[in-house]
Structure prediction request, 394 residues.
Amino acid sequence: MASENNKKWSSRSVGTPWQHRFFYFLIRLGGRHIAYPFLYPVVLYYLLLRPEERRKSRYYLDRRFPERRGFAALKDSFHMIMGLSRSLVDRALVGICGPEILHTEFPDGRRLADLAAGSEGLIILTTHVGCWQAAMVYLGKLKGPVHMLMQQEEGDIDRHYFEHSGQENPYRIIDPTGFLGGTLEMVAALNRGEIVSIMGDRRQGAKANSLAVDFLGSPVHFPVAAWKLAAVTGAPLAVLFPIKTGPDRYHIELAEVIKIPQQDSRPLKRLTPYLARYVRALENLCTKEPYQFFNFYDMWEEQPKP
Amino acid sequence: MHEASLREQLKKIIIEELNLEDINASDIKDDDPLFGDEGLGLDSLDAVELVVLIQKHFGVEIKDMEEGREALASINSLADFIETRRAG
Prediction:
C-alpha cells in the first residue's frame, strides 16, 4: 500500500481548468448531445499534437493489438482516448444531472445486495474501466456505508462528480497515502460489516506488496492489498465492471465473486490463484471491449514488448 | 495478564502468525519500531493481519489511523494499548 509509495502512474487529469469548465458548461447547456461532439477536436488534438499522450495509450494497446501498426494503431489510440473522454463527460453528467441521467442495467444487482448484507462486510474491486458513477444508483441502495480507497492528487483540476452539485461526498474516503496505507480504516470498516471499494489494477506501493500474474501475455505486478484484506477478514470480494453499451447506457457486470479462506492469507503467493481469477476477468473484458480499459501507464514495466 | 508476559505473548504471536523467519522473541526489543525500515520492518500488509490478530487474541479493536499510529509503534505501546482497553 502507499506508505511505501513508489507508484509510476498519475491520476491527474490532462487539460487546463478552463477546458474542464467549458465542458461542464456544455453539459449544463445541453447534456451529452452538446458535449460529445466537442470531444472530437479535443481528442484529435491530444492524438495528433501531443505525442506523449498518444504514447501513453500504446502501453496497453500494443499488448492488446500487437499486430497493429500505422493508421490502424492510430485509430485504436483514437477510440481509447475518445472512450475515456466520453466516460469523463458521463461522470460530470451524473454529477450535474443526477445518476438517473444514465440508463444502467445491473442483472446481478440483487446478488451484490445480498453480499453487502452479510456480516463480514464486502470488498468491491473496481478497475479503470467505463464510468463507475454509472453504478451509483445501485451502490446507494446497498446496506451500510461505502468506503473508497482513493487519493486525489495535488493540483488535479478534474472535479469529483458530487462536487458539481455542491453535495457532500456520499462515500467515505480512505486515503491510501495515510498511515499504513489506510489499512486500519479498511479492516475496521469490514469488521463493522461495511463496504470497502478498492482499485484492483494500480499498484500504489512497493513491489513487495504485489503479485505477478500474466496479463495479455506478460507478467504484471498487481496490488495485493484487497486480496489480503479478503483473506484475513473473511469478506467476499466482488469484481465489478461498468461497461458503456450505448451513448447513455451502461451495463454493470459482476464478473467474479471471490471468497478466500483465511489459511490462504500467508505466504502471499497463496493468493495468486484468486488474483488470477480477476486478471482473467479483466482479460475477457479487454477482449470484448478493448477500448474500455483506460490504462495509460506501463503496467508491464521491464517486460519486453511484443 | 502480567505486563511482561503480555509483551512476550505479543512477540510470539507476531513471529509465529506473521511467519517471521530467523527471528526470536529475544531479538525484538520492547521499544523497537514495528513498522518501517528500522526495527522489525513490518509493512502495511502485515498490519492487516496484526490488527485482526490483536482482535482475535485479546478482543481489542484498533479502529483508525490515530489509534493505530500510537498503538502499533512498538511492543510496549501495543501492550499498553491492550491493557488500557481491557481495563476500560
Q: What stands out?
A: Chain B touches chain A through 21 residues (CB under 8 Å).
